[in-house]
Every structure is written in C-alpha cells, then in structure tokens.
Amino acid sequence: MPEHLSDPVSSGADVRITCGHCGFEEDWTPAALARHLAEIGGSQRWAELTRHLRCRRFGCGATTLDAVPLPPGSRPANMPRRIGRLDAHLLSAALAVLEGVTQRSHGQAVATLEVRLALLVVHRYARDRDCVRRFWLRAADGNRTVDAGLAEPLQLIRHRLVAAGWLAPPVLLEPARTWPWDSPAPPGWKAPAAVATRPDEQA
Question: Where are the annotated segments for Disordered (predicted)?
C-alpha cells in the first residue's frame, strides 16, 4: 500500500473508497480527495486516509471505510463487471438519444429511425423485449396523455440495464457535514463559509 495520498499520482491511479457497511464505492482523483480532506481536517497519510471520512451514500454515513489505489482501466465504481470502452460508448449514445426524445416528446410522435436504432442498441444489452417495445409504442403515439409519457419506460430500461450490470446504480450523495458553530470545525467537519462583514462594521 502507498504511504501517502500523493503516491498514486506518479502511477496515474485514482483512489477508491469502499464502505464496509453498505458496499458503496466512490472513486476520487488524488487531487480532489486531497482538497476534500483539507476541508474537513483529515490526514493524507494512507494509514489515516479514511479516519475522518464517512460513507456518502444517502442514509448510510458509516465510518468503516477502506481505501485502495485504483489502476487505470479498472471497472467503474459500484459495477459488478468491467465494461469495455465500446460497450460504454454505445450505451451512452443510445441513452442520450432516448433521454433527448423523452424531454421533448410531450404530445407528439417521436418514433424516428434514430430512436429505433437506439432501442436496438438497448435491447442488445438489456435483453428485455417488453421494456423496449413499451418505449417504442409510446413514442409512436402522438395522442398519449401526460401520464403516459416516455419517462416511465425509460426508467424501466435503466432498471434493466442496472440489473444486468451494464449501468452503475444511481446513488444519492449526502453533502459534506458543515460545522454549524463559530468555533473551529473539528476533524471530519467542513468549516462554515466566512460571513461577509458589512462596510459599517469595518470602520
């Protein structure tokens, strides 16, 4: 293991923080993690790297964390498999198309060739004909109601891709805890922003 947070920089590695309680993984660049540790008064010595950190997954907050260097090309955080670059690009492009038509498809048919190709890509990975067919049928219906929009079938598609291990699950991150008092923030807490002084108070 490295002795200091600056050690992975020379090898181009990031740092993966893993929660021993819920299994949540979070990847940091050494520079970003160093800034965060400086804000909360943490140490950059590797043995004490996670001492003042907490799991940032919403509703967890555990302190049983582990830090490991992450070599380039490793699997993404919270993913059960390593995804190839081509697969990641194909899925990203297909989902971008579907998200775009979902946002602009209110009360109009959007069953275009572009959408059809995107759904073919999604089906290749999700292996679920029902969710793909549901999206296509709604996209072709220009008279659908607001409640019958494309957001629901798109969410189902994402759920299938997450279940199959092609997408990382959505995670809500809690903001860093801010010390609410005027006294110096203890380790593990972010210092409050300085209160601006009015001109008449400076005189």
Answer: 184-203
What does the pLDDT average to over 53-79?
85
Q: What is the mean pLDDT of the chain?
A: 83
Q: Are strands 14-19 and 65-70 parallel, antiparallel or unpaired?
A: antiparallel
* Percent over 70 (pLDDT), the chain: 88
pLDDT in tens, 147-184: 568 889 999 999 999 888 888 877 777 777 788 888 88
Q: Render the chain in DSSP notation, one character per residue.
A: --SBTTHHHHHT-EEEEEETTT--EEEE-HHHHHHHHHHHT---BGGGTTTT----BTTT----EEEEEE-TTPPPTT-SSPPPHHHHHHHHHHHHHHHHHHHH-TTS----HHHHHHHHHHHHHH--HHHHHHHHHHHH-TT--GGG-SHHHHHHHHHHHHHTTSSPPP-PBPPPPBP-SSSPPPTTSBPPPPPPPPHHHH-
What single letter denotes the amino acid at residue 111? A
The label of the residue with tokens 């492009």 reads 93
